[in-house]
């Protein structure tokens, strides 16, 4: 399975084309719209979420509610584009209109300046429009399709926030993936500890009044993943490495860890390695899951535990200093629409890209021209590794 996305933040629409989805997968627009709505939710979101209500249109690859095996095309219309017809026009326009909303004061932490350097733009809006987090709309749409594949294989996925603007969120022991998904869904800040809800909201409100932004750490957990996905034979075959690349590719994400992650650097080997167990009912398991479901770049049958750190959103309503690219004089950075935080939405994006990588890996390993063939192949593999 592979996909491409296209579209700009204020362009007419966002588009994705997915190739390699098995035939016979039940898929409707509502399956995708549910996650698009989740991406636009969460406490602390700004005015853009009130302007755009993302709804997908499936224009290829699905017939009578089932995928056909042909490429799937997904489109999301940008309603706000009507206010940007001249600014985002495809055709050439008058010079005086080109200067309207031109960006020449790059924002620290954004792609504005370096994108202009790389592609030789005199108007940094060209960098802004594609590098905007609006691009993640289609990655969530693709992820929703991937999650439909995983669901058919009894693979469950959820995300929640474990650090919110420097505030660590205590997570009760023994929560299942379903528990995490249910609790996070009931929280406007996507946390599983409801006792911290009002504290986090009050903090977000204060950050907004200060004209500042906050980041945090998102944890994505996946249950039901069969052992043996990925490989140790080459560096680019390791599945945890593929997941790390996908997570860090999300706008504003700066790092990723698995299981105890960077904490392993402070522990002894006897405190980190997961002892191997076996019984006739469940097959191989581990006493702990400190490695987050991975050994040697491969899944080991334990739940996947992946964390990504998101930096604070770079666009500030009290902007930092920058430089005018025409005069090279100091100038305050351009202010575009922004949020004090987008962590809950970022969690949905992270969940989506993780699901996409896993679905891609599964379709690569198992026979998957159609869904029934795929389900049979995965079931046979699970039976084999259980009795290995």
Q: What is the gist of this entry?
A:
By secondary structure, this protein is of the alpha+beta class. 32% of the residues lie in helices and 20% in strands. The chain has a five-stranded antiparallel sheet with strand order 8-7-9-15-10. A four-stranded antiparallel sheet has the order 1-2-6-3, covered by helices on one side.
Features:
32% helix; 4-stranded antiparallel β-sheet; alpha+beta; 5-stranded antiparallel β-sheet
Strand order of the largest sheet: 8-7-9-15-10
- Helix and strand content put the structural class at alpha+beta
What does the main sheet amount to? 5 strands, antiparallel
SSE order: EEHHEEEEHHHHEEHHEHEHEEEEEEEHH
**What is the average of the pLDDT values?**
95
Helix content: 25-40%
Q: How much strand content do the residues show? A: 15-25%
C-alpha termini separation: 29 Å
CA radius of gyration: 22 Å
Total of helices: 12
- Annotation, overall tally of beta strands: 17
Unreliable runs, pLDDT <50, ≥5 residues? none
**Overall 3D form:** globular
């Amino acid at each position: 399975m592979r996909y491409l996305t296209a579209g700009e933040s204020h362009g007419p629409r966002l588009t994705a084309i997915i190739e390699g989805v098995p035939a016979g997968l039940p898929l409707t627009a509502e399956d995708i719209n549910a996650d698009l709505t989740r991406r636009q939710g969460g406490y602390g979101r700004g005015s853009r979420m009130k302007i755009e209500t993302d709804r997908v249109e499936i224009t290829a690859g699905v017939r009578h509610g089932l995928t056909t095996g042909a490429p799937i095309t997904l489109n999301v219309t940008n309603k706000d584009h009507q206010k940007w017809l001249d600014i985002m026009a495809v055709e050439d326009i008058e010079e005086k209109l080109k200067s309207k909303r031109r960006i020449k004061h790059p924002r620290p932490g954004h792609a504005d300046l370096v994108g202009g350097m790389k592609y030789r733009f005199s108007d940094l809006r060209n960098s802004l429009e594609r590098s905007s987090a609006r691009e993640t709309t289609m990655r969530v749409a693709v992820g929703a399709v991937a999650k439909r594949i995983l669901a058919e294989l009894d693979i469950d996925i959820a995300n929640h926030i474990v650090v919110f603007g420097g505030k660590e969120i205590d997570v009760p022991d023994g929560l299942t993936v379903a528990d995490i998904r249910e609790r996070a869904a009931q929280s406007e800040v996507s946390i599983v500890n409801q006792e911290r809800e009002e504290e986090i909201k009050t903090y977000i409100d204060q950050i907004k009044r200060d004209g500042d932004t906050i980041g945090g750490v998102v944890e994505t957990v996946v249950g039901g993943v069969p052992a043996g996905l990925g490989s140790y034979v080459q560096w680019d075959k390791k599945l945890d490495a593929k997941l790390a690349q996908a997570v860090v590719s999300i706008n504003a994400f700066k790092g990723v860890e698995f299981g105890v992650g960077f904490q392993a650097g402070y522990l002894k080997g006897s405190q980190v390695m997961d002892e191997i167990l076996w019984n006739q009912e469940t097959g191989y398991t581990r006493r702990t899951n400190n490695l987050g479901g991975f050994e040697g770049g491969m899944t080991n049958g334990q739940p996947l535990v992946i964390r990504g750190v998101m930096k604070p959103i770079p666009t500030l309503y009290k902007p930092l200093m920058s430089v005018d690219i025409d005069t090279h004089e100091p100038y305050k950075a351009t202010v575009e629409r922004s949020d004090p935080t987008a962590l809950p939405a970022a969690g949905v994006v992270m969940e989506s890209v993780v699901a996409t990588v896993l679905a891609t890996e599964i379709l690569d390993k198992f026979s998957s021209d159609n869904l029934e063939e795929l389900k049979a192949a995965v079931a046979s593999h699970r039976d084999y590794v259980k009795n290995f």
